[in-house]
Amino acid sequence: MAKRLILRRRQTPSFRTGSKAPLSINPERTPGFRPGKVEGLILLGILLFLSFFFSGCQKSGEKGLGKRELVRINGVSISLEEFQQMLEKQPLEGKMRLLSEKGTRDFLENYVIPREVLYQEAKKRGLDKNKEIQAKIEDARRAILIEALLEEGLRGRGEVSEEEIQRYYKENQTLFVEPQEIKIRHIVVNTEPALKEVVKKLSQGESFEKLASTYNIGNFKEDGGNLGYIRRGQLASPFAQFEEAAFSLRKRGEISEVINTPYGYHIIRLEDMRGSTLKPLNQVKERIRFFLQPKKRQEAYLEYVKEAKSKAKVLVNENLWNEEEKKEAKPKEEKR
User: Fold this and answer.
1) What is the pLDDT of residue 88?
2) How crowded is residue 139: how many other Cβ atoms within 10 Å of its Cβ?
3) Where are the alpha helices (DSSP H) in the chain?
4) Cut 0.90: pTM above it
5) What's the Cα-to-Cα distance from 19 to each of 23, 190, 295, rounded to whole Å?
6) Whether the predicted pLDDT of 30 surpasses 50
7) 261-287: per-residue pLDDT in tens?
8) Is 91 within the bounds of a domain?
């Protein structure tokens, strides 16, 4: 039965030209995709467009505006260079929307100009003098500076080394042992309504085998969705997620989350295991790195803070601190 799953995948799902679903690209899985390079090309396209678009505007522009002055709002100027800097700060998705005359003009009319108008109005009302707002601005300023300091100070200090990954792998090999072969059964449907029915009935305790025999598509109804024993790497590449989910099950009778493949929606149940094998380091290296990274960065942060504190002269008014503690303790004693 497992072979049937492999062979059937050769019927490659056809792309329907009438489909309304947008064609999506996963940057991380696209060969040669380099986010910085793409953003640079997009930005170059925007800047070239601006040079033509706004040079045309300047010829018939308002009187009094300087040669590089893009817009003036109540006497406050925003130059073309400043506008370009605002464009540079936009995320990739935002830059994509700016690759047209309409998109760039909308950005000017609906973001840049309103932002300056509202800022001027806030100052006109004296909000910049409000102590509460000044405190928030100061908090934000401090947070930005601290973030910049940590980014600079921790650069390269919180990375997990290859040696640390190898050490963790050797010391925790039981975490990376899996069955050599597993026997699995699955339910597979190709519509969401059918999937919802199956999930609901499973949660109500209905038989996995019976549901597989009732709902499974094609020949998978046979023997209640039994696929027999499978090994790592036996399934075709489109079923990599299916295989990973199957081998992540640890107890007989354990049921997986829903997995999506070219056939539809699958739910897997582990029937049996035999043999054992240790996953090679190259298969689990990134998983180990992901696990160790937060701890390593936290350690680097604490060490950096410790170093900074050791260089600072810190005085704590212990008398004042103790007085405040006593004040807080009195209401608690009275309640008793």
Assistant:
1) 84
2) 10
3) 2-8, 35-59, 80-88, 92-97, 101-107, 113-124, 131-153, 162-171, 192-203, 208-215, 240-248, 281-311, 318-335
4) no
5) 10, 17, 46
6) no
7) 988 999 999 999 988 888 899 989 999
8) yes
Distance CA 121, CA 103 (A): 26
Question: Which residues span the domain enclosing 243?
Answer: 180-275
169 and 295, same domain (yes or no): yes
Q: How far apart are CA 273 and CA 249, in angstroms?
A: 10
d(CA 297, CA 160): 9
Indicate whether 108 belongs to any domain. yes
Distance CA 123, CA 74 (A): 13
Specify the 3-state DSSP secondary structure of 45.
Answer: helix
Whether 1 is covered by a domain: the verdict is no
Tell me: do 78 and 35 sit in the same domain: yes
Which burial class, exposed, middle or buried, applies to 215 when counting CB atoms under 10 A from its CB (0-12, 13-18, 19+)?
buried
* Residues 103, 152 within the same domain: no
User: What amino acid occupies position 33?
Assistant: F
* Domain total of the chain: 3
Per-residue HEC secondary structure of 46-73 comes to HHHHHHHHHHHHHHCCCCCCCCCEEEEE
Residue 13 belongs to a domain: no
154, 221: one domain: no
Q: Which of 275, 303, 323 is the last residue of a domain?
A: 275
Where on the phi/psi map is residue 275: left (φ > 0), alpha (ψ -120 to 50), or beta? left
* Inter-residue contact 189 to 265 (CB < 8 Å): yes
Q: Which residue has the higher pLDDT, 45 or 202?
A: 202
Cβ count within 10 A of residue 64: 7
Whether residue 136 is found in the same domain as residue 119: no
